[in-house]
Structures are given as structure tokens and as C-alpha cells.
Design brief:
270 residues; Rossmann fold; 35% strand; binds flavin-adenine dinucleotide; binds FE2/S2 (inorganic) cluster
């Protein structure tokens, strides 16, 4: 769906002090969307990319989970149930379901695109270990809804906080290192800040484990026309945003540089 449709927000959930989830009724996207895909969301001041964090074809509902970081996301956070937003999509390739012993690593709002993937993996009765990382316990995203699956033998959930307020005291990549010393996996999925992704990729490579990551670049059209989202030869909105190890190995810009809104290459610092 390339033409934006304007529709009311059905429900808003506050997840953390800086993150809210917005639910909309969009039957076509709810039926066609897969985990890892994203929407272009028109907030009446700008259009920004947001991953699908909830996909419910039965209720015809979709959700996006938005961290307040600047003017458009602040605008979204000021909205109420019934406020109007424009959406087009779903865009991008989405995650490929692969492997049987799976490690999912999410940093901060990166858990947004991983959440529907985790539900799909649980439904497919895969052996799944999820590591959620955040700065503090208050910023942990989707820990509560995932907690209920920990009664299953095939599901494990571990937490890392930078300040040690819950779970492992340190970075989620350090927890990942520790987890890999105790268990074996044949597939890793990751989403979060790019330097975290680069570390998770390096760890996966060192242990020869298949890896998929969701990458972010500045997006304008979202459909492969403008070139603003390029990483080396890859167009993130069209070839990605999910990339596998064989492609990540060829991306020299991954973890090093990105383009600003004017197209200038700048260094990645977070
Ligand atoms: C495929 C994809 C999926 C994303 N999914 C989510 C998600 O599920 N939840 C979430 O909170 N955030 C997500 N983001 C990031 C989100 O798009 C930005 O945080 C948002 O655009 C910031 O807009 P702003 O006006 O509030 O902030 P600004 O102050 O304009 O910018 C803050 C930061 O957001 C980046 N940003 C701004 N506009 C864009 C844009 N058009 N495209 C890409 N980055 C931009 C800037 O480069 C800067 O680093 C995703 C980004 C991409 C590319
Ligand atoms: S955002 Fe225009 S090509 Fe990707």
C-alpha cells in the first residue's frame, strides 16, 4: 500500500517512560505484514519509519512502538486515542524463520521489531532464548508480556541493564557472550543500536552462527526510489531492513558510518 491512509489511533499503551505503543485498525497491513517489516508513518509534521511491533490479522490490528527522541516522535507521544495518523506499507523484507535453537538479542526500542518475531517463534514451538537489554529496569521493553512464556521448557528470558537495576549488570552483548558459553544456538536475531548490532554480529561470526539483524538508515521514500537509506550497495528500505551474515560481511559502512538527511556520510557514535 504506497498511498498513505489516514486513520484514528484505536489504543495507546505506555510501555516505559520514553516508549509508547500505538494500535491502529488496518486490515490489509494486519493480513500482509510480517515481523521485521516497517511502515512509513505520517505524523502531520513528517513521515518516519516505524517497525511493526504488533500484527494481529484476526482483530485486523497493527501496532507500532515508538521511542520519544525528537520532534515527530514527540508529536506521536502527545497524541490520544482517536487522534489521526497516516500510514503506508508494509515495507521491507522481514525476518526469515530459520534454525531450531534460537537466540534473540534486543537493545532498547530494538525490541519493537523483535516482539512479533518472538511470538511467531514461540507459536512454531522453537527453542527460544530472549535477551533484553536497556539502560535501566524502567526502560526494559516487552519484558512483562514475554514473562508469561517462561513457564514453557522451550522459552528462556534474560535481562541486562546498564545500571544493574535488574538482571545482569552490564551490556546485553556481554550477557550474550555469557549465554553462548552455556548454550548452543543455530540462529541469532538482533535489533538495537548499531554498535550493539556490530558486536552481536562479530560474536555470531566468531562462533559460526547464522545471524539476521534489522538495520536503520535515514529514510525518505521507504520504497527504494530516493537512495537516502543506502549502506554500501544495499538499499535498506528495499533490500532490508533485515540483513543476513553473507550481506553484512560485505557492508563496510555497517557499524562505521551512515548518511545524514542531506546524504553526507557521518560516523556512527551510538
Ligand atoms: C526501518 C526502521 C524501523 C524503525 N523502527 C522504529 C521503531 O519501531 N520504534 C522507534 O522508536 N524507532 C524506530 N525507528 C527509528 C525512527 O524512525 C526514528 O527514531 C524517528 O524517525 C525519529 O524521528 P524524530 O523526528 O522524532 O527525531 P529526530 O530528532 O528527527 O531524529 C532523531 C534520530 O532519528 C533519526 N531519524 C529521524 N528521521 C528519520 C527517518 N526519516 N528515517 C530514519 N531515521 C530517522 C535521526 O537520524 C536521528 O538519529 C526505525 C527506523 C528505521 C529506519
Ligand atoms: S528511503 Fe528512499 S531509497 Fe530507501
Amino acid at each position: 500500500m504506497n498511498k498513505p491512509i489516514v486513520l484514528p489511533i484505536e489504543k495507546i499503551e505506555t510501555n516505559t517512560p520514553s516508549i509508547k505503543t500505538f494500535f491502529m485498525k488496518v486490515p490489509l497491513i494486519a493480513q500482509q505484514g510480517i515481523p521485521g517489516q516497517f511502515l512509513m508513518v505520517w505524523t502531520f509534521n513528517d513521515e518516519i519509519p516505524m517497525s511493526l511491533s504488533h500484527i494481529n490479522p484476526k482483530k485486523e490490528l497493527i501496532g507500532i512502538t515508538v521511542k520519544k527522541v525528537g520532534s515527530s516522535t514527540e508529536m506521536m507521544h502527545s497524541m490520544s486515542e482517536g487522534s489521526l495518523v497516516g500510514v503506508r506499507g508494509p515495507y521491507g523484507n522481514g525476518f526469515k524463520i530459520a534454525g531450531s535453537r534460537i537466540l534473540v538479542v534486543g537493545g532498547g526500542v530494538g525490541m519493537a521489531c523483535l516482539f512479533p518475531l518472538i511470538l511467531q517463534l514461540v507459536e512454531a514451538q522453537k527453542y527460544v532464548t530472549v535477551l533484553i537489554g536497556a539502560l535501566t529496569k524502567d526502560e526494559l521493553l516487552f519484558q512483562k508480556p514475554l514473562q508469561k512464556y517462561t513457564t514453557r521448557e522451550t522459552f528462556r528470558l534474560s535481562i541486562a541493564t546498564d545500571d544493574g537495576s535488574m538482571g545482569f549488570h552490564g551490556l546485553v552483548t556481554e550477557l550474550m557472550d555469557e549465554t553462548l558459553q552455556m548454550e548452543t544456538f543455530d540462529q541469532i536475531y538482533a535489533c538495537g543500536p548499531e554498535l550493539m548490532l556490530k558486536t552481536t554480529f562479530n560474536i555470531a561470526e566468531s562462533q559460526n552462527i547464522a545471524f539476521q539483524a534489522s538495520l536503520e538508515r535515514y529514510m525518505k521514500c521507504g520504497i527504494g526510489l530516493c537512495g537516502s537509506c543506502c549502506i554500501n550497495e544495499q538499499i535498506v528500505c528495499k533490500d532490508g531492513p533485515i540483513f543476513e551474515s553473507n550481506v553484512l560481511r560485505t557492508m563496510h559502512e555497517f557499524g562505521n558510518s551512515k548518511r545524514d538527511p542531506s546524504g553526507r556520510l557521518i560516523s556512527i557514535t551510538d
